[in-house]
Each structure stands twice: as C-alpha cells, then as structure tokens.
Amino acid sequence: METPTNELEVVKSSDLKPKPVGDQVPFGTVFTDHIFTMDYETGKGWHSPKIVPYGPISLDPAAMIFHYGQTVFEGLKAYHTEDGRVLLFRPEENFKRLNLSSDRLSIPPIDEEQMLEYLTKLVELEKDWVPQTPGTSLYIRPFIISTEPNLAVGPSQTYKLMILLSPVGSYFPGGLQPVIIHVEDQFTRAVKGGTGMAKTAGNYSAGYQAQANAKKAGNADVLWLDGVEKKYIEEVGSMNIFFKINGEVVTPALNGSILKGITRMSVIELLKSWDVPVSERKISIDEIYQAYEDGLVEEIFGTGTAAVISPVGELNWKGQKMIVNNHEIGELSQKIYDTITGVQYGRVEDSFGWTVEVN
Ligand SMILES: *Cc1c(COP(=O)(O)O)cnc(C)c1O
C-alpha cells in the first residue's frame, strides 16, 4: 500500500467570476471560483485533497452514483460579521453527521478534523465571496459520490468528495414569515430502519410528489408522519419541527427516521439554558389536534440551516385547518431566531462556543 498523499494542493483560477450584487441571488444558483475535491480508492484511502477552479467534472456513464444513488451530503453556512470576521456555525457537527450518513450508505468515513481544516482553507481563499448584506451568507455543500464504473449492485470501490460554495440571499428578506404546512397522510418519507436519518439524495426526490401536491393546494411544504401508522410526527421537508404547547416545548425524538438537525440540537441547548421546559418524545398528530382544540398550541416552528427558524402559521390535516398564533410569529420563535442568528453574525456573545472563525 502506497502512502496516501494528504498534502493539500491549491490550483488557483486565473479567470475570476464577477460576484453577485446585494441580496438578489436565488438559492443555490451561483458558485464561487474554486471547489475542494478529494478522492477515495479501496486500499489507498482518501487521498489527493485539492482546491481547484470550479468547473464540470468528468464521470464514466457507468459510475455507480448514477445507478444506485450511493451518495451523501451536508449543508452549512459561513457568515460575515459587522466587524469584518467570517464565522462558521458548528462545522464539526456537519462532518460528524456526514460520517453518520456515510456509515448508513456504506461509504468510507472521512477524518472529521482534517476535513474542517480543508474547509477552512477553502472558505479562507473564497472569503470575498461571503456576502455582506444583512441576512446573506455563503452556503457550503460538502458531498460524496460513488464513482466506480460498475453496474453490479454493491458499494463502490472509489468515491469523490467535493465542497461547493454558493452565496445566498436572506431566507426571509422581509423578516420572519409564518408558512402554511400540509400534514402528509398519503406519501411516506422514511421508515425506521430505512435511510431517514441520513442526508442522502433519494430521501429528497422521494418527497417531490407530495410537496408538489401540497404546493398546488397553497401550502409551502409538507409535515411528514411516521411511515407505518401515519400517526406520529416526524419532520418537514428539510427542517425539524417544534411545538410550544401550554408553555412546554416538544419536538419528535430521534427515532432513526428523522434527520438529526444541528439547528434542532442548538435550539434544545438554548431552551435548556433559558430554563424553558423542552422535551424530545413521540408526538402524535391527534395529540396536536386535541391541544389545538383545547386552545393550548401556542407556537409551531421548523428548524434548519437555511431558515434557522421558520414559524408555522397554519397546519392542514385531512381538511382540518389549525391556525397557529393568528398567523403571527411567536415570541419564543422570534427570540430563538434572534439569538441563533445573533451568534452566527457575531452580534450576540457566543457563550456556547458554537462558531469557528475563518482567518
Ligand atoms: C438538513 C436537514 C434538516 C436540518 O438540519 P440542520 O442541520 O439543522 O440544517 C432537517 N431535516 C432534513 C430532512 C434535512 O435534510
């Protein structure tokens, strides 16, 4: 076995792209000048880490990713502070979760600390791409694809890891806006024992049909229920979900089919530090409906990297509408949003040590 080369090679682009102006960038459509790439080969391990100019890659049409979807991804952001620093939010958690997802998909693990170093170098090089308009950020998309040209069903012997950077506008340019969510009682996103806890491609395309139906009926997204009984609440498209009922905050427990959100984890830690009662447990949709009928549902909000907090103004379940807090943002939702975004943009003291500064 050869000694793998783990020295980072940097090839700078000689043709720098113009940067978008202001807050007018549709999510995920503009990319920076460079990407990070690294390759894996059985017997050799992960090797040849590189930062190279952004551009198309070449793959064999028989590459296993195209046929069996053996792939995982992550999503995090870099934020520009008012005093000119660039901060990452809990990036070590993203690489930890990437390895959890990879484990489920039989993809070899990466060295989490080493990856954080490579990511920091990439963001450092692309620092001028971190937008400065309030609410904007640089979205970071690490992902791994299986690349072996082979139609036999089974784990690939070769992989490619890449990191893309994409400047993104504010999720809520006009301030927090409560959304309308359809409670999905036909389609299933994930079941216990499946891949729901992994950030892997197929989970998302499997939700498109339900999301399209929900959108046609005027909803922003769907709230998934458990795949067996369609009874217990799981999560929204790419957000975890929280309910404030009669002064207590509850969120579905991680049961194997729910994505372990880093925003979710941060919200729980924050609420505990504020002495707000919070619990992770099984929550049935009937329980929510009953609490709604009893006038006890005070706030509902989704959590995820994209929006941080997305207040839910209305839930639609089997033709029954639950109007939450008169379609207005709840006090606690707003406070959580202000605190987490405050830490991310350096306006609020980072007492949890959540941020990592890029030099
Ligand atoms: C990424 C994701 C989330 C949110 O996770 P964060 O780490 O908070 O961004 C929730 N649910 C699904 C299905 C996701 O893909």
Automatic annotation (TrEMBL):
InterPro entries noted in UniProt: Aminotrans_IV, Aminotrans_IV_CS, Aminotransferase-like, B_amino_transII, BCAT-like_C, BCAT-like_N, BCAT_family
Gene3D superfamilies from the UniProt entry: 3.30.470.10, D-amino Acid Aminotransferase, subunit A, domain 2
Pathway(s) it belongs to: Amino-acid biosynthesis; L-valine biosynthesis; L-valine from pyruvate: step 4/4; Amino-acid biosynthesis; L-isoleucine biosynthesis; L-isoleucine from 2-oxobutanoate: step 4/4; Amino-acid biosynthesis; L-leucine biosynthesis; L-leucine from 3-methyl-2-oxobutanoate: step 4/4
Catalytic activity: L-leucine + 2-oxoglutarate = 4-methyl-2-oxopentanoate + L-glutamate; L-valine + 2-oxoglutarate = 3-methyl-2-oxobutanoate + L-glutamate; L-isoleucine + 2-oxoglutarate = (S)-3-methyl-2-oxopentanoate + L-glutamate
Enzyme Commission number(s): 2.6.1.42
Record's keyword annotation contains Nucleus: no
GO molecular-function terms, A-Z: L-isoleucine-2-oxoglutarate transaminase activity; L-leucine-2-oxoglutarate transaminase activity; L-valine-2-oxoglutarate transaminase activity
PROSITE patterns xrefs: AA_TRANSFER_CLASS_4 (PS00770)
Domain of life: Bacteria
Keywords in alphabetical order: Amino-acid biosynthesis, Aminotransferase, Branched-chain amino acid biosynthesis, Pyridoxal phosphate, Transferase
Residues in coiled coil: none
Residues modified to N6-(pyridoxal phosphate)lysine: 199
Pfam families reported in the protein's UniProt record: Aminotran_4
GO BP term (any one): L-leucine biosynthetic process
Cofactor: pyridoxal 5'-phosphate
Family as reported in the entry's similarity comment: Belongs to the class-IV pyridoxal-phosphate-dependent aminotransferase family.
Name of this chain's protein: Branched-chain-amino-acid aminotransferase
Organism of provenance: Planococcus salinus
